[in-house]
Specification:
The chain is mainly alpha-helical and 423 residues long. Among the domains are: 96 residues, no CATH class; 38 residues. 74% of the residues lie in helices and 4% in strands. The protein has 20 helices and three strands. A three-stranded antiparallel sheet has the order 2-1-3, covered by helices on one side. The radius of gyration is 34 Å and the shape is elongated.
């Protein structure tokens, strides 16, 4: 009786094994003919019993499963983690040296190229979620190519998917990814312009043929400060300034004089309403970059908000001296000059009809016109750089009317009407 049971069990195992082999043959034929739905169905049928199969059959099963789910590049990205897992199982079973392992290496290269190309095209078409997903999958297949994760984070932030981008940026930071690379450059003899080559071999070949001259290398800056900045800005957007500042302070421990990190810190202070710390950060940045017009401008903004009008004027003038084409400095210097305007008008409107009041009114009117005359060239300079600013055109028309500049009144009337029509 016992012998009969053993034989029966042996036959049962043999039948299961035969069934699996049939299912895998079906899957293999379906994959070759491009019928991936049938291939997946056959794989699913075989999967329940694969744990008891030998290594050779297991390797084939996982190889075909990966192929079926990938569907020659037409599968869903949701299946990609399982594709990667299946191929990793093949490598593990064959110790990376078997029949299927060698095929997988080529397949992985094709998969990565397809995903990266699709991610690039999606980004160009502003389908940022798809782009981020494709770049992320390319990275999961090839974790040594960390730049794909960086592209995924960038695409996610472009699509305003802050949670996904934060996850990727945090991962990049934990990996200490800096994105530094060497660019191989040479000057095109025909155009006289520098061109960047994909690698040193291509660059040197072009120099050798004589089409290019002056070969050189250039090392790019670390992307780690930018990654930290993005993490901080996302936390600010998510109304979590503490985590934002924590991210910046961590980065600044390693890069205490990194200007971009100091400015990120300043921005967090500003958005958190911490004006004294914002001012300290900007002053620290100015010590590192004294010729930066925008930094001087920012100090002017803080001074004006604090009612320190003369200090604000000084900062705005420094900004203009550093960059004569920096429009915001001209505009804000005019605003600082005109900051007394409201108080003057209120006093003028509150005066009575006495002779003393009439005299005071004329004094105030003269002072008001003096302020307007001082601010006028600054506003006109701003308008030459920002000619589509309707509010600025209206303000200039108002000042020219007050100063009775007849020719300018007509000129700015036309400009105001034209801009109103465009808007």
């Amino acid at each position: 009786m016992k012998k009969q049971i053993v034989v029966a069990l042996a036959l049962l195992v043999s039948t299961f094994s035969f069934s699996q082999k049939n299912e895998l043959k079906t899957a293999e034929k379906a994959i070759k003919s491009g019928n991936f739905a049938d291939a997946k169905a056959a794989i699913k049928s075989a999967e329940a019993l694969i744990a008891n199969a030998d290594d050779k059959l297991k390797a084939k099963f996982y190889f075909l499963k990966g192929q079926a789910l990938y569907a020659n590049g037409n599968g869903s990205n949701a299946d990609m983690p399982e594709v990667i897992e299946s191929f990793e199982m093949v490598k593990k079973i064959e110790a990376g040296k078997g029949k299927y392992s060698s095929s997988i290496d080529g397949m992985k290269t094709n998969m990565i190229n397809a995903l990266v190309n699709r991610g690039y095209e999606s980004n160009k078409e502003k389908r940022y979620a798809s782009s981020a997903d494709d770049y992320n999958m390319a990275y999961r297949i090839s974790p040594k190519d960390t730049i794909y994760l960086y592209y995924a984070a960038t695409s996610a932030i472009q699509g305003q998917d802050y949670d996904t981008s934060l996850k990727y940026y945090e991962e990049l930071r934990s990996l200490r990814y800096n994105g530094k690379e060497t660019k191989y450059i040479a000057t095109n003899k025909e155009t006289g312009k520098e061109e960047v080559f994909d690698n040193v071999t291509l660059r040197d070949a072009s120099v050798k043929t004589g089409s290019h001259i002056a070969p050189k290398e250039k090392n790019t800056d670390s992307k780690l400060p930018l990654i930290t900045k993005m993490i901080a800005e996302i936390y600010v957007f998510k109304k979590d300034p503490e985590k934002a500042m924590e991210a910046v302070k961590l980065a600044r421990k390693e890069n205490p004089n990194d200007l971009s990190l100091i400015l990120t810190e300043a921005d967090i202070h500003l958005k958190s309403g911490n004006t004294p710390e914002f001012k300290k950060s900007i002053q620290e940045a100015i010590r590192l970059d004294p010729d930066n017009a925008e930094l001087q401008f920012n100090l002017g903004v803080i001074a004006l908000d604090a009612g320190e009008v003369e200090d604000a004027k000084t900062y705005y003038k420094k900004s203009i001296a550093l960059d004569p084409d920096y429009a915001p400095a001209y505009r804000n210097l005019a605003v600082a000059i005109l900051s007394k305007e409201t108080a003057l008008i209120e006093e003028m409107n509150g005066l009575g009809m006495s002779a003393a009041d009439d005299k005071r009114y004329e004094e105030l009117k003269k002072e008001h016109k003096s302020l307007q005359a001082e601010a006028l060239p600054l506003l006109e300079k701003t308008f030459t750089m920002e000619p589509n600013d309707l509010n600025l055109a209206i303000k200039l028309l108002e000042i020219h009317r007050a100063l009775e500049n007849t020719d300018k009144i007509n000129e700015y009337k036309e400009k105001v009407n034209m801009l109103k029509a465009e808007n």
